[in-house]
Amino acid sequence: MPQTSVMPPVAHLENLRAGELCAGGMVRRPARESQKCDRRGRRSVLAVPNTPSVSLRPRTDDDLDLLFEIAADLDTWEERNPQAPRPLTRDRFDARLARTADNDGPEAAMSLVIDVDGAAVGSASLFDFDLFARHAEAGISLERTARGRGIGTAAIVQLVEFGFVRHNLRRIHLQAIASNIAAIRAYEKAGFVIEGRQRQHAWVRGTYEDIVRMGILCSEETSSA
User: Considering the entire predicted model, what is its pTM?
Assistant: First the structure.
């Protein structure tokens, strides 16, 4: 699956305690099944067929090379960042990580590594938390070999579950460039619905593109085909 249009810089990746994930049941499991809560706390199963075993986990030092490669990829820059493309050096990447490592407040971005069979293939994040209205924005990034295999859908499903069940969010939203049809379809499979469109909002490789806004509520029961 192609990447999201906008997500926080990889600098927002921070280490989480491994037990924080396991306690919430977010351990490795086949990606063809994932769960989401409804307003009564029940779980509904979202099917993501024909995908590898996908899980979300805290970042380790062994993941940094892969995460830097994704962050520095100028070919997919606009799908991941609202800012104009610019070369990213390893020193700048490491410095960003260092600056944000101490930001562990309740509104700090929460980022996890997307793991497939023990190997990191990308990152999934919740950011721009509104603790009063209980919502946050989601974003994912994948390496090239992990795209188009259903891994992104499985990852976003698990990220949404973590946001609803562990962070008590009521709503999660995201955005995608309108031409990124594969990403939009993947989000729809994960239960997101299109809520609006910002016309000619993004400058993408020589042309203006619309931004599609999508969201999902914890009260929504969604099954995917």
Answer: 0.73
